[in-house]
Design goal:
heterodimer; A: 129 residues; five-stranded parallel sheet; globular; B: 151 residues; alpha+beta; Chemotaxis protein chec; seven-stranded antiparallel sheet; 3 helices; 38% helix
């Protein structure tokens, strides 16, 4: 399976990728975007083949287009329908969580996190999708 | 103790807790407050802005060695001080500390928003005697860094 990781920090994208690989998911490729706009370009097929993306992990606080704006644009443009989106962010307050869920996020992980937390929250979503 | 001093004491405790959690969960290291008598000379700083319910900033000040060790701990691979990953890692460290501190506030204050981190070179010395909102130093292994909260 392929996954898309959206975070403005290249270091954090690698940390998340490592946690996903440790969770036992059969990742063949991890696509990366540094903001929501880049992610939409990938999902539209503008810059990469979006086929077989089975998981999207997204930060919220990012320049250009943040994670909540990405979620809402993805929903409005009907991109990657049925693919689980898990927010992984320092923004853990209720308004952010509620807005993310309303816009289609199926999981929410707060930074700092452990690989075990990623496994527990992501793997069931991928298996159910 | 004034109301502001009481509030500041509470916020310092939450900051100590947030720093400890970030290091334990993300870097698998112990990190605790340090008493620093001498000025230190950070070479890099990361800044997060708070807006909304709280207006202020969280500034993390560190040496290049701290940035390098943080990048290595997050990535699990060797790094060097000139590697862009070192600056990136300091930005993420500040982001997680500021976010962790915010999440420990009361529900109204936790509604503030935080900006993405900005990272820059830092050329000024950091003196623990300087009066600011509050300034805390932390030690992990043989390394010391500072976190300054201004409101």
């Amino acid at each position: 399976m392929r996954a898309l990781i959206i975070d403005d920090s290249a270091v954090m994208r690698k940390v998340i990728e490592r946690a996903l690989r440790q969770s036992g998911l059969d990742l063949t490729e991890v696509l990366q975007a540094s903001n929501g706009e880049e992610a939409l370009e990938i999902l539209r097929g503008d810059v990469a083949n979006p086929a077989k993306i089975r998981l999207i992990m997204s930060d919220i606080n990012m320049p250009v287009m943040d994670g909540l704006q990405f979620l809402e644009a993805r929903r409005d443009q009907q991109l990657a329908v049925g693919v689980p989106v898990v927010m992984i962010t320092t923004e853990g307050s209720e308004p952010f969580v509620l807005r993310a869920i309303a816009a289609g996020a199926q999981g929410y992980i707060c930074k700092p996190f452990t690989a075990e937390q990623v496994k527990a929250r992501v793997v069931p979503l991928v298996e159910a999708a | 103790m004034t109301a502001w001093q009481t509030r500041q004491h509470d916020w310092i405790g939450r900051l100590d807790s947030a720093v400890s959690e970030v290091f334990e969960m993300m870097l698998e290291r112990n990190c605790s407050p340090a008493e620093i008598a001498e000025a230190i000379a950070p070479s890099i700083s990361a800044r997060i802005l708070f807006s909304g319910a709280i207006h202020g900033e969280c500034v993390l000040l560190a040496s290049s060695a701290v940035a390098q060790v943080t990048a290595e701990a997050l990535l699990g691979t060797p790094s060097d001080p000139d590697d862009p990953a070192s600056a990136d890692a300091i930005g993420e460290l500040c982001n997680m500390i500021a976010g962790g501190w915010k999440s420990k506030l009361g529900s109204e204050e936790a509604r503030c928003t935080i900006s993405p981190p900005t990272v820059s070179a830092h050329s000024e010395g950091l003196d623990p005697k300087t009066e600011v909102g509050f300034l805390r130093f932390y030690r992990f292994e043989d390394h010391v860094f500072g976190v300054q909260m201004n409101f």
